[in-house]
Amino acid sequence: MEASAIVRVPAGNQGAGFDAAGLVGELRDYFISGGTRSLDWRRRQLRQLSRMLADHEARFLEALKADLHKAPLEGWATEVSSVQGDIQHALKHLKKWMRRRKVATPMVVQPGKSYVQPEPLGVVLVIGAWNYPLQLALAPLVPAIAAGNCAVLKPSELAPATSALIEELLPQYLDNGAFRVVPGAVEETTALLEQRWDHILYTGGGNVGKIVMAAAAKHLTPVTLELGGKSPCIVADDADLEVTARRIAWGKFTNAGQTCIAPDYLLCTPAMAARLLPAIADATREMFGEEAKASDDYGRIVNSRHAARLAAYLEDGEAFMGGEADVEERYIAPTILTGVSLDSVVMQEEIFGPILPVVEIESLDMVEDFVNGRDKPLALYVFSQDDAFADRILENCSSGNACVNDCMMFMAVHDLPFGGVGPSGMGAYHGEHGFKTFSHFKAVLKKKTMLDLKVRYAPFTSGKFKL
Ligand code: NAD
Fold first, then answer.
1. Interatomic CA distance for residues 360 and 106, integer angstroms
2. Which of 12, 118, 208, 462 is 20 to 30 Å apart from 419, CA to CA?
3. Known catalytic residues?
4. Which residues, including other chains, have CB under 8 Å from residue 157's CB and lie 6 or more apart?
5. How far is C-alpha 174 from the chain's CA centre?
6. What is the pLDDT of residues 230-262, one digit of tens each?
């Protein structure tokens, strides 16, 4: 821990008495002091973050179980190990990312040299979401640290066990002069959003995203908005049935469907649907047994409000599989819904739960019209053995991210940017893209004083220029 550690805002000081301006002021002073700039300091913070996860892995997995009934192995794979991977990647490449990038210097400004110098933005705000409460709080913090910033982290109040653990442990490991955790909900977030930040990275729904962006606009603060949307899953007639079914079932029912990049709905021909739906049902049974409610590996909905919202969607079609809901227990069965109308709520709103509506189209020639007639999604999935078909869809349909013959696994590729487009978000992070998000790339020209051609100075007499 740094010698200059400043005590973080105590939990009792939240709410009405919460001094958001004072907090940001302290961090800004620390940033200006230059304490966050060196490669050594950044590396030390990243290693400390990694140590925090390693030292308390079991407690984090317990917290994820308490919040979302996440199986320990799932919590480890999708949250703990995912952030550890981000940290190791940043540690490995940080020195290179921080380097100046030399560019060519034209004759007109010779003698001199030109380069792009990455520099930290300053004091940034990270607002996390509840569905991957550990990953979505810490994964943006990794590039914020790597880029040399001070940061305030506001984890989601809807995952209280994980948020409380982050609040307890982070100050024990990171430089308290540079990093603070602010627990709380709308009131605290609103107080934070009133302050001037150098960047805000927000993960969550689009409605709050608009609030974040409007607040940021008052200070001309740039934002990264990691939002959601209805991500289509297109299955061509030639898709490998067994693997496709297993990967879709995994993508849709992991974390009980509460994944921003989960396939939202299926798009396929009636002939494919007749083969695919039983195969998805088989794959789901293989993962969670006959009764998912009894499975230790099947998640719960974050709260009863969201469970009731999802239960209402079940009325919008016929359950080919599942269809049971127990709102009090926050349980929604893994469900495939057929016969849905495109006007129904389940096809109008992002589902964000374990319900997979099936949209049958007569011909795959209609896929582009269908997808492009809706908001640009966060993710798009194509299952096909025909590379030309997959390329056609990728070429013609816009989405934040895309995957061919799998779901969600682009998240495991450190060098791919992760972010939405249009209503599914703006900006991106992960790997070097995250470093860039939290850096300013300053253009520098360094000149010598020899050779000062007078031609560019007034007076512009005719003898100087021959036009
Ligand atoms: P949310 O938008 O309700 O909350 C997210 C954060 O915003 C929380 O920290 C919360 O405290 C804060 N917040 C809530 N209301 C606020 C207000 N009025 N003013 C200021 N701050 C406020 O979260 P949600 O909508 O339930 O999350 C689900 C959505 O998030 C889905 O649309 C999902 O697709 C999206 N999501 C996106 C990603 C991504 O990486 N792109 C990841 C996870 C979730």
1. 58
2. 118
3. 226
4. 130, 163, 183, 184, 185
5. 22
6. 999 999 999 999 999 999 999 999 999 999 999
Residue owning the nearest CA to atom 43 of ligand 1: 260
Residue 264 clears pLDDT 90, i.e. is over it: yes
Q: What are phi and psi of 362, to 5 degrees?
A: -65, -40
Q: Is 378 in the pocket of ligand 1 (CB under 6 A)?
A: yes
The whole-angstrom separation of Cα 357 and Cα 317 is 8
Per-residue tokens: 148: 């040399």
Question: CA of 299: how far to CAs of 2, 58, 63, 89, 185, in Å?
Answer: 39, 18, 13, 29, 24
| 279 in Cβ contact with 245 (< 8 Å) | yes
Instruction: Bin 427: left if φ > 0, else alpha if -120 < ψ < 50, else beta.
Output: left
Q: For ligand 1, say whether the CB of 264 is within 6 Å of any of its atoms.
A: no
| ipTM summary value | 0.94
Show the CA angle centred on residue 421, arms to residues 420 and 427, nearest 5°.
65
CA of 364 to the centre of ligand 1 (A): 34
Pocket perturbation via mutation, ligand 1, pick of 187, 203, 378 by most ligand atoms within 8 A of CB: 203
Q: Which of 120-124, 410-414, 461-465 has the lowest mean pLDDT?
A: 461-465
Q: Is 203 in the pocket of ligand 1 (CB under 6 A)?
A: yes
What pLDDT score does 466 carry? 62
Q: pLDDT at position 249, please?
A: 98
**Pair type for strands 232-235 and 150-154:** unpaired
CA quadruple 222, 224, 227, 233: dihedral, nearest 10: 130
Answer whether 178's CB lies under 8 Å from 122's CB.
no
Task: Please say if the pLDDT value at position 13 is more than 50.
Answer: no
**Amino acid in position 227:** L
Average pLDDT value for residue range 77-84: 97
CA-based end-to-end distance of the chain? 65
The alpha-helical segments, DSSP class H, found in 296-386 are 304-313, 345-348, 367-372
Nearest-angstrom CA–CA distance, 80 and 220: 34
**Contact assessment for residue 320 and residue 358, using Cβ atoms and an 8 Å cutoff:** yes
Query: Helix axis angle, 206-217 relative to 186-193, nearest 10°?
Result: 30
217's CB contacts (< 8 A; 6+ apart) are: none
